[in-house]
Amino acid sequence: MLKVLAIIVSFLMSVFAFGQNNMHHTSNRIDAIFKNIKDSDPGVSLGILKNNELIIQKNYGLANLEYQIPISSNTVFHAASVSKQFTAFAILLLESEGKLSLDDDVRKYIPELHQFDNKITLRSLANHTSGIRDQHNLARLAGWNSDDIITNKQVLNLIYNQEELNFATNSQYLYSNSGYTLLAEVVARVSKQPFSEFTKKRIFIPLKMKQTQFKDNIGLVTKNKAYSYYKEKNSYRKDLFQNTSVGATNLSSTINDLSKWSINFTTHQVGNKKIFDAMTKLESLNNGNTYGYGLGLFINKYKGVSKIEHSGLDASYQAYIGWFPKQKISIVFLSNNGELNGGRIIHKLTGLCLDEFVKHQNSNPKKLTKKNNYSKISLKKLKKHIGFYWNSKDRFSRELRLNNGKLNYVGGNGKLTSLNAINENEFEFSTKEYTAVKMNENEMNVVLDDGYTLRLKKYIPADYTNKTIKEFEGTYYSKELNTSYIFKTKNDQLIANHLRTGKFKLKAIKNDFFIGHKGSFRNITFIRDLKQKITGFRVSSSRAKNVTFKKIKI
Asked: What is the full DSSP assignment across 467-496?
């Protein structure tokens, strides 16, 4: 009897540790990751599966701060963009039944969408290559606030109103929530039932995911709901999310239910292998390049181990599901605490779960070193490099300046660092750490010691006076967003004002180009006619490019 008991204990220990004699994945190690979550804080629900069994389930903190309700395995969280894999799955279910094709034009099902120059397929919506501007960026530009009550119909109308794309379809990859809102609408129209009903009947009920649903109505009562919270002056505040658009977001679920979904990836109780293969196959651009995304899922590696995953973030909710198919391990993470760094936590959990499988790499990779073989370059050759350089990706400016016969790099804090010349186009910082500056015509590349390169383009800085900057004043209207901004000046500063979002400053970078730091109002390029009069501007954010505003007479 004792021998049998010993065998059982040994088996349980090996399963718990994810591998024979591997004790790095114990419950205590996981607890240490969440040690800073107090019992009075919003928190986390966590599940780790091995061989299709939920072998670790942990809960930390509160689901509801007002009533001090602890998080449990049945606490319902908003799962944000983890929703997308269910939308992709729903589309593929319909395709498997011959009711649509991923290569169909979306306007076959949604004729309200603008007729763009190129065909937008259901596939391009699902793999984020459609070029359709992101709904959240558009909503912020239109003056909608994060805690507004926003319906699915409103979001769809905003998408239908767009007359331009970010880029030609399938020429680039750019994550866009709009694609998945459109896909959910296609599912509803093809199945002739609300998207929330289709997913409930075809996915959640068959998998016994009893506490999972797409919330398409702000008034829906959700039992065991976790509310999301962020911190302000050492006190938690409720972070409202009242957007009821479905497809890209608005899945509500629990650790127990999402664990059942994770298991379905290998058991195919609902769906089939062909569907899951399609979701986890890397999609390609027109040029044949892949970009780490399939259909509703990211496909990549962790230290050599294949990984399938998707995360999500809305308000202060954070969600994640990750599969490691060869190791038969998966991680499910749900949180209502906006103060947590979810990405870092997932990285730590992944390390615990995969420690025995990963390719251990040198934690101190070899860094680039200085050449210490410098040349004397004439002032004439150095002068061609002086000027200002702009990094459009991270939106910052740097300057190269001559000082005491040497070229100097001017940092963001105004500090000058002299540059040692290797040749007339390549320099190194005169600092202990390696940093190089490589010039190429009107471009400056700043190479850091780990090889990461910052690319900056040469430009002429704007030099507006209180008089000349007034030409940008006026009222500007966007037909696509049905909203307007009023621009006025004060003390050589251009100031934008929106009825709902209020006033914010615009900083002049170069002629006719300004930057803003308000929501999605980021890069602004003014448009002039043949007589050089300003007729409007185009504004871009991370996922909505070149939205046009025209100057109007009041």
From this structure: TGGGGG-EEEEETTTTEEEEEEEETTEEEE
Contact of 304 with 296, CB cutoff 8 Å: no
Please give the structure tokens belonging to residue 1. 């009897």
Question: Of 436, 416, 415, which Cα lies nearest the Cα of 425?
Answer: 436
- What is the distance between the alpha carbons of residues 521 and 501, in angstroms, rounded to a whole number? 11
| pLDDT cut 70: percent of the chain above it | 94
> For residues 334 and 61, what is the distance between their CA atoms, to the nearest angstrom?
12
pLDDT exceeds cutoff 60 at 105: yes
* In contact, 438 and 429? CB cutoff 8 Å: no
CB atoms within 10 A of CB 554: 6
Q: Structure tokens of 121? A: 């397929």
Between CA 305 and CA 373 the distance in angstroms is 41
Query: Which run of H or E residues covers position 155?
Result: helix 152-160
- State both tokens at 533: 């009069």
506 or 25, which is more confident: 506
Comparing 75 with 368, the larger pLDDT belongs to 75
**212: which 2 tokens?**
């999972």
Instruction: Yes or no: say if 241 and 250 are a contact pair by the CB < 8 Å rule.
Output: no
Contact 353, 15 (CB under 8 A): no
pLDDT of amino acid 24 = 41
Report the 10 Å Cβ neighbour count for 289: 9
Q: Of 411, 82, 424, 403, whose CA–CA distance to 253 is shortest?
A: 82
Name the 3-class secondary structure at 138: helix
d(CA 251, CA 216): 9
| Residues 457-481: tens digit of each pLDDT | 999 999 999 899 999 999 999 999 9
What are the tens digits of pLDDT across the range 181-223? 999 999 999 999 999 999 999 999 999 999 999 999 988 899 9
Burial class of 209 by CB neighbour count within 10 A (0 to 12, 13 to 18, 19+): buried
Give the model's pLDDT for residue 358.
85
Distance CA(356)–CA(353), nearest Å, equals: 8
* Radius of gyration of the CA atoms of the chain, in A: 27
In sequence order, which residues have a C-beta less than 8 Å from that of residue 323 and are 6 or more positions away?
262, 265, 307, 308, 309, 329, 330
Query: pLDDT-derived band of residue 2, with 50, 70 and 90 as boundaries?
Result: very low
pLDDT at 372: 80
Measured CA to CA, the distance from residue 129 to residue 123 in angstroms comes to 8
Distance, in Å, from the CA atom of 78 to the CA atom of 246, rounded to the nearest integer, reads 12
What is the average per-residue pLDDT within 232-238? 94
Say if residues 122 and 159 touch (Cβ distance below 8 Å). Answer: no
Kindly report the three-state secondary structure assignment for every residue of 379-429: HHHHHCCCEEEEECCCCEEEEEEEECCEEEEECCCCCEEEEEEEECCEEEE
- Give the separation between CA 41 and CA 28, rounded to whole angstroms: 20
CB 83 within 8 Å of CB 196: no
Model confidence at 23: pLDDT above 50: no
Q: pLDDT tier at 226 (50, 70, 90 boundaries)?
A: very high
Task: Give the chain's largest Cα–Cα span.
Answer: 96
